[in-house]
Design goal:
disordered N terminus, two-stranded antiparallel ribbon, Serine Threonine Protein Phosphatase 5, Tetratricopeptide repeat, 2 strands, about 475 residues, mainly alpha
Length: about 475
């Protein structure tokens, strides 16, 4: 079982000149204790011998599926799909008998949000979630209903709505820690990283545990503190309350490993996540991403197809399409791009805002001018780092290099908010700078992109290498001689 936690390793040291100052690594708990903590998570009510004890310690039995899912959805953690089904059935039956019960409607709404997120059946579950949560709110203006509406807005990428609902939830119950998670996500989506960090500090004063650690890891990652992000996930995975929760944490850790180009470590995390929870489709997509980087193309295609079968998200279709395109399989790539367009249209009917993803797709594979129009509007609504990067790339593809560099700088400059250590963002900036004749910065950013993750995309990483090779070595400029006095 050591694969569940051992691979979540903290990085040490700065990776290049643009890295934040080195932060003191957290002391890791001994490996044996970590293994025991992980075993406790997965054994439920089993008997377990501890070192130095002559008799087994009896553990409390695991909660019933509905109760376990209830705990997960009300704390913002992942729940197993079968448990969610049980919880939804129980709550639907209960509210039919007690239609004025505000807490029951709030739990049902939260379960619908999680079900929609896990299955991508947003046209079914997001409208149901909104109905349940608003019914709860009409019965009683509780923090639970407000938090659920914030989570639903965040799932739809409506970060302004998520901010309003989240702030209302915190105002209604400032000591209830579960209200803070969706608000952190909202501030992040709006590009207000200062408020996201301040809100995380308040959350950590109120509570500790896997849910809070997962949120802290995401904030640390956005700041470029990948060592801290990995360390808190290491602890969180050992303290997870269910296999589904641990699988979600391992998926998050796998993504961190992927981003820093540690493909064996990423693959271990993704595969272990799938073993713990076969419905963890984000981990299957992560497997596809990593296997493609390792050159195991047939396995990568199978992993992506499996992820799409269980959670047909348009971003998975984009990744699979780009993998096909990199292999010269144009017809298959275009088929996936059509799947992407169809899914985005379908999601839009359920109130999901996919402007960022559609803009990225159009910039790379469709109409750059349309991408610019969409992403400019998205930037006005929700000026986060991801939008800045996408808009910069779209402007470049549309031939507007100077404007493109302004946005690319925001996405990659820590002083402007772009603390994320993203190979893709640095690639975009390097290409833009090369086109503008800024060869020194272009060379530096392309080198950094490939240093962080040399195979960040099967389609775009080869273009990064080609652009860097075209730049050649920096010119050998002689040092000017000092003048004699």
């Amino acid at each position: 079982m050591h694969g569940t936690t051992q691979g979540i390793s903290a990085e040490t040291g700065a990776e290049n000149g643009t890295e934040n100052a080195v932060r003191t690594p957290r002391r890791r708990r001994p490996r044996l204790l970590t293994l025991l903590a992980t075993a406790l998570t997965l054994t439920g009510g089993a008997l377990l011998f501890l070192p130095g004890e002559s008799a087994p310690v009896r553990r409390a039995p695991a909660p019933a599926p509905g109760a376990q899912a209830h705990t997960a959805v009300t704390t913002g953690m992942a729940a197993a799909l079968p448990d969610l089904t049980t919880l939804i059935g129980e709550r639907e039956a209960f509210v039919r008998r007690h239609p004025g019960d505000a807490p029951a409607w709030a739990v049902l709404g939260a379960a619908y949000v999680e079900r929609g997120r896990r299955t991508a059946e947003v046209t079914v579950y997001y409208p149901k979630a909104e109905h349940a949560l608003r019914t709860s709110l009409r019965a009683a203006r509780t923090a639970d209903a407000l938090t659920g509406l914030a989570a639903l807005a965040g799932a739809r990428r409506d970060f302004r709505g998520a901010k309003e609902w989240g702030e209302a939830a915190v105002k209604a119950a400032p000591k209830r820690w579960t209200a803070y998670g969706p608000l952190i996500d909202a501030y992040t989506g709006l590009g207000d990283y200062k408020k996201a960090r301040a809100t995380l500090e308040k959350l950590m004063e109120l509570h500790s545990g896997p849910a809070v650690q997962a949120k802290a890891s995401a904030v640390y990652r956005d700041r470029g503190w990948r060592e801290d992000a990995a360390a808190v996930l290491y602890d969180a995975s050992a303290r997870a309350n269910s296999p589904a929760e641990q699988a979600a944490l391992l998926t998050q850790a796998g993504q961190l490993s992927w981003e820093r180009g540690d493909f064996p470590d990423a693959l271990r995390h993704f595969q272990q996540a799938v073993r713990l929870d076969p419905d963890q489709r984000a981990a299957q997509a992560g497997e596809g991403r990593t296997l493609a980087a390792l050159g195991r193309t047939a396995e990568a295609l199978a992993a992506y197809k499996s992820a799409l079968a269980g959670q047909p998200l348009p971003e998975y279709a984009l990744e699979l399409g780009e993998l096909y395109e990199s292999l010269g399989l144009t017809e298959q790539a275009h088929a996936e791009y059509e799947v992407l367009r169809a899914r985005i249209r379908q999601d839009s009917a359920a109130g999901v805002n996919d402007a960022l993803l559609l803009g990225r797709f159009e910039a790379g594979h469709g109409d750059p001018e349309e991408a610019v129009t969409r992403l400019r509007a998205e930037w006005r609504r929700q000026p986060g780092i991801a939008v800045a990067d996408a808009l910069g790339w779209a402007l470049h593809r549309a031939g507007q290099g100077k404007k493109a560099l302004w946005y690319a700088s925001i996405a990659t400059d820590g002083t402007k908010g772009g603390g994320v250590r993203s190979a893709s963002y640095l690639f975009h900036r390097g290409v833009i700078e090369r086109e503008l004749g800024k060869y020194g910065p272009a060379r530096r950013h392309l080198q950094n992109a490939l240093r962080i993750n040399p195979r960040f995309s099967p389609l775009w990483a080869p273009q990064a290498r080609a652009a860097l090779e075209a730049l050649g070595e920096p010119p050998d400029v002689p040092v000017p001689k000092s003048r004699k006095r």
